[in-house]
Task: structure prediction
Amino acid sequence: MSGHSKWSTIKRKKGVADAKRGAIFTRLARELTIAAREGGSDVDSNFRLRLAWDKARAENMPKDNIERAIKRGAGEDKDGTTFEEITFEGYGPHGSALMVTCVTDNRNRTVPDIRHAFSKSGGNMAEPGAVGWQFDRKSYFAFPASQLSYDKAFELGIEAGADDVVDGGETVDIYGPVDAFKTIADALQKANVHPEEAGLRMVAKQEIELDVESTLKFMKMVESIEELDDVQDVFHNVKVSDEALAALEAA
Result:
């Protein structure tokens, strides 16, 4: 599971995902809007909104943009745009499985875009539920090991209700039940730990490992899906080996 964290770090270093600042802001604004629509505009009481706010500030998103997105979600700024969340399920090459979460204002645009992204890479979209059973929804946190040692992170995580704490070398990953998100986040904050990633994600119950060449082709497929404007996250069941990570970083 820690391969995801390492791959995310590589993407940040190389600027692979969301190379344009505008694309980052668009995705963050949609997440802020959805979060405010679901739980209200109070950042202190709406945990999903708190997370989206923190992400937006970390990316230096202008405060006006953040506030406008929140007002839109709370119904205070009626601009005529309505967003909805959609999760797509699909199969990639070599028996791989993917879950793609989107936030869109036009379902008729998003569905064919996702279908085309799957098919051009040798995959195909699946019916709802066909792939989802292979994943569990989890709270997820990743932070540099320099902020907190693995041993201390393990103790903190277990006490806060985590299911698993993974030593990823340069990073530490914490996984837990969805309802333990706030408890873990509060514990990390109290320990002065600032996660590079934090949120709810779909975690594969069982991972498959491909050879390096197949992994590289698969990750290109993931990248092509991630580049679509409406896509927020892509989760999959492919274990990215150290050899594949090295090849990805060198590419």
Observations:
- The radius of gyration is 18 Å.
- The beta strands are 84-91, 97-104, 124-126, 135-144, 164-167, 171-176, 197-204, 208-209, 231-236, 238-239.
